[in-house]
């Protein structure tokens, strides 16, 4: 999130302490941010209201490396900090720019906090100025095959992107890299949705976005290490209307912080999904727990009901119990008597009706010698 925040929180904290007069001795502090931005803040005990702020940062493109601040960036700094700071020339040794801040000349209360926030966004002003100069004043550099030579921009270490300047438009290509496969899936879904939205008629004024899993043709000939990605390549087409007037600052800063924004979006999406899954798991666990408690209550009720039935049986009178036993015994005796009687009748029936009669032989045979 810090990469797409214009204001430096650490620098704001230091300037607030100095303007409140908390430091009663000489102050000389070095501050490093984003891995490559370096600040030096100096204040003396004799004049605590005056602070010298020096900064150094690498150029956006290695092709235009210089220890001095470009003229376009210097003019923008003077214009932005006309009422709140003064540019010291020459700057402190080892730094590209030095600002002299007089807290006595700054407005009071809320306006002073606003001025301090503007001063703390010094690195954003310098980077945006360099990027605007590339997009606006840089001439197209054509190669032999009719393609333009891309310019490598390094805003974050190990995550460069490329700018291809043409006559009618400027194409910005971002190689996207992620550490986790889950982040790759979320980012790919986000890129596809971004492409679909940019192609709608309602957003025709916005820069056109495309995504490809393979390197675009514009990056042909670049080193292999810059073309090896797991998140594909995102391309944004910038036209002249996007970098005119008040839109220029927002457009340039969005281009510089696009990679940071995507990673922040993926991180938030992943956290949202995990939070929803955790809530779903807790709700299911609660359902199972309530069902288990309800089942235990049913078992207890059944056991209590059984005890009540036993008590009811014990409350029967002895006469009723004896009467019940007597009826059971008499029924058994009757059943036994019926069995004996049925057997006697069957025996008599067999003797009378199922007796086999003897038939005399009609012929007699004589034995022959």
TrEMBL record:
Give UniProt keywords alphabetically.
Actin-binding, Cytoplasm, Cytoskeleton
What is an example of a Pfam family matching this protein? P34-Arc
Annotated family: Belongs to the ARPC2 family.
- Residue ranges spanning the membrane: these are none
SUPFAM superfamilies, alphabetized:
Arp2/3 complex subunits (SSF69645)
What interactions and quaternary structure are annotated? Answer: Component of the Arp2/3 complex.
- What GO terms are given for molecular function? actin binding
Q: Where in the cell is it found?
A: Cytoplasm, Cytoskeleton
Q: Which GO terms describe its biological process?
A: actin filament polymerization; Arp2/3 complex-mediated actin nucleation
Q: What is this protein called?
A: Arp2/3 complex 34 kDa subunit
Q: Tell me which domain of life the UniProt entry assigns to the organism this sequence originates from.
A: Eukaryota
Among its keywords, does the record have Metal-binding? Answer: no
Q: What organism is recorded for this protein?
A: Musa acuminata subsp. malaccensis (Wild banana)
